[in-house]
Amino acid sequence: MHFIRNIRWVLSLLIVMVMSIGAEHAYAKGKHGHGKTNQTTVSQPLSAAEEQQARTLYSKTCVACHGQRLEGVVGPSLVGVGSRYSLTKIEQIAQRGKGKNKPVSMPAGLATPEEARLLARWLAAGPKLPADAPGSGQAK
User: Fold this and answer.
1) Domain check: are 61 and 16 in the same one?
2) CA 91 to mean position of chain CA atoms
3) What pLDDT shows up at residue 138?
4) Whether residues 72 and 115 fall in one domain
5) Confidence class of residue 44 from pLDDT cuts 50, 70 and 90?
6) Which of 2, 9, 116, 138 could disulfide-link to 94, CB 3.0 to 4.6 Å?
7) Range of 91's domain?
């Protein structure tokens, strides 16, 4: 009888340990559950030419939905997106789109793989927007 009581105690302890390990693993997956941390690593800083290319590409492709200052219009705000998603995830969204089951979704195919990579690096780095962009509150 004493042996059975010890086995129950040990099994209970093992169940609690397994559950706590599972909870830690789920928490470590991050806010969006992608199995990655939300920290972004930008391999190399953007050159001035790349920064200008990214800004131009954003203006042509993204600004209508995400706004001049990344504030979000019909699409979500992209301010601080590098702290919410990994560089790879930003690149995937830029290329494949997002929210296909929502009333307003971002379609796939807006950027080539190279453009998506450039936009992802630019957005993850926290782009410096021109002070005279609409909504900046500064005089031109």
Assistant:
1) no
2) 9
3) 38
4) yes
5) confident
6) 116
7) 48-124
* Predicted model pTM: 0.63
Query: Around Cβ 121, how many Cβ atoms within 10 Å?
Result: 23
Cα dihedral 51/57/61/67 (nearest 10): 30
Phi, psi angle pair for 17, to nearest 5°: -65, -45
Residue 7 lies in a domain: yes
Q: Are 115 and 102 in contact (CB under 8 A)?
A: no
Q: Is residue 101 part of a domain?
A: yes
Secondary structure letter of residue 102 according to DSSP? S
Look up tokens 């630019």; give the residue: 122
Contacts of residue 34, defined as CB under 8 A and 6 or more positions apart, other chains included, come to 85, 86, 89
pLDDT, tens digit, 9 for 90 and up, residues 76-124: 999 999 999 999 999 999 999 998 888 888 999 999 999 999 999 999 9
